[in-house]
Amino acid sequence: MITGYLLGVDVGTTSIKVAIINEKAQLLGMSSSSYKLITPDQDSVQIDTEDMWRAYLKCIRLLKDGKGIDLSKVVGISISSLCPGLAALDENGKVLVDPIIYSDRRSTEEAEIIKKAVGEDRLFEITANTAMAGAMSGTSMLWIKRNLPEAYEKTKYFGHVNTLMAQRMSGEFAIDYSNASYTNLFETTGGLKWSEELCEKTGIDIQKLPPLHSSTDVVGGLINEDLIKMGIPQGTPIVIGGGDTACATLAAGVTKAGDVCESVGTTNVLTICVDEPKFDRGFINRCHVVDGKWIYQGALSHTGASYQWFRDNYYQEFLTGEIDPKYVFNLMNDDAAKAEAGSGGVVFLPYMLGERSPIWDPYARGVFFGISLHTGRKEMNRAIMEGCGYGLKQLADIAEKVTGREIKSFVSIGGGAKSTVWAQIKADITGKDIEILDMNDMAPIGAALLAGVGANVFKDVYEAADMVEKKVFKCIKSNHDNDAVYAKRYKVYTELYPKIKELYKVGSNLY
């Protein structure tokens, strides 16, 4: 087996993280840098490609100059990416349309066109997913075709962010199965190929879809001068990698059927690994970065974002230059702990900018239900936390029904996972024990593991995942003292959305 360093890059919603590990999967260094989004209106959200690339190079410089890492020892590079982030590339890799990300809502009409052209049942039968603006990149491809016809004609390949990054580093075009699962054009349920039927019915040219690969496949050698000048050897294998949550759960050890993981950040995602392509419409369903495995992903898209929104708007007096933002979150956690379980009757729906699983509704928005003259800041604060707990319980209930397996506990990772107050609320509402791992940024490490498999540093993904030291930050045991009140609030949570669903469309600029 080869020895050396492995570089994993994770392209997130607003920042890039780069991790370098050795052949024992020990972390040698990690860096991060933010980049700009292009948001000319409230429905449009794209990545500024050149600023993203600048952030990537900055991360590598920080590791080289700040950590003193010898980049000449890098023997493999792989990519984790937010998903989807749909870019249009010409034959030379020039970006014709900057990556359109999951929260972009311009293609709402195109999603309806796809569902009507294919039929919702047939679409789910082939792809294991529905069509939703931004959340599935086929809608954005169709939007480009209908609104940017010149760009569509010039497009050699549509790809996700890892397609773009791999092409810029190696000159080769590729996409992996975990990303392809989020296109509405891929046979997720078995064929693992682009669907001629879906391309024909949606009007997307199948020739514009990039070559498909396993997440551990080497797509080419490094030719990018920016990286070579910094010391990474020319010809270093570029491994295609996968979606960010799939990469993160690989690093957390989710590789076998029945493994469950929660990742906590801007979004809150419950991931369940399965070895049979049996799916439920409530989930986002995709191929895992582990060949022969699939994952159900229940993505609560705006839970962490909701909590930050609440901080920015209702704890402004603490947001001064002298105060660490982490202190404000700790203060909010203390306030939430002081509120009674059930938040004094307040239930929060966390659908701040539409929602994917389980409701698949781009029109949905956040709701505080049950506010009274007795409601204060701490109750609304806690209601956001509890809303996340109810959402997780809803997703866990669906998973148990589909798989026939009871989920007794799950691993939790990510920057927001270490809030003990929030973790206890989630454990109590779901009735599941939670093991919080002492590692925030697992996605770039997962990408580095995939690089290691592709570069023959590790035998396979199982050996790679087992290599990662999984230190436990804290174990949270579910407490049943508040079962009665949580059961009542959960009933409100699950029944509220169906009762107000049609009202979301009234006055919506998407309607």
Summarize the entry for a quick read.
The protein has 511 residues and is an alpha+beta fold. It has two domains: 5-252 and 442-470, Nucleotidyltransferase, domain 5, CATH 3.30.420.40; 303-410 and 418-434 and 474-504, Nucleotidyltransferase, domain 5 (2-Layer Sandwich). It contains 17 helices and 22 strands.
Outline the structure in words.
The protein is an alpha+beta fold. It has 2 domains: 5-252 and 442-470, ATPase, nucleotide binding domain (Nucleotidyltransferase, domain 5, 2-Layer Sandwich), CATH 3.30.420.40; 303-410 and 418-434 and 474-504, Nucleotidyltransferase, domain 5 (2-Layer Sandwich). It is 37% helix and 21% strand. The chain is built from 17 helices and 22 strands. The chain has a 7-stranded mixed β-sheet. A 6-stranded mixed β-sheet has the order 3-2-1-6-13-12. The longest helix is centred in the C-terminal third of the chain and has 27 residues, at 377-403. The N and C termini lie far apart (57 Å). The model has no long low-confidence stretch (mean pLDDT 95).
Strand content: 15-25%
Chain-averaged pLDDT: 95
The CATH homologous superfamily name of the largest domain equals ATPase, nucleotide binding domain
What is the CATH architecture annotation of the largest domain? Answer: 2-Layer Sandwich
- Provide a count of the helices: 17
Biggest β-sheet: count, sense, barrel?
A: 7 strands, mixed
Per the CATH scheme, the topology name of the largest domain is Nucleotidyltransferase, domain 5
Integer tally of domains: 2
The amount of helix comes to: 25-40%
Shape: globular
CATH class of the largest domain: Alpha Beta
Count the beta strands.
22
Instruction: Provide the low-confidence segments as ranges.
Output: none
Whole-Å distance between the termini? Answer: 57 Å
Identify the strand order in the major beta sheet: 16-17-15-14-20-21-22
Radius of gyration: 22 Å
Indicate the structural class: alpha+beta
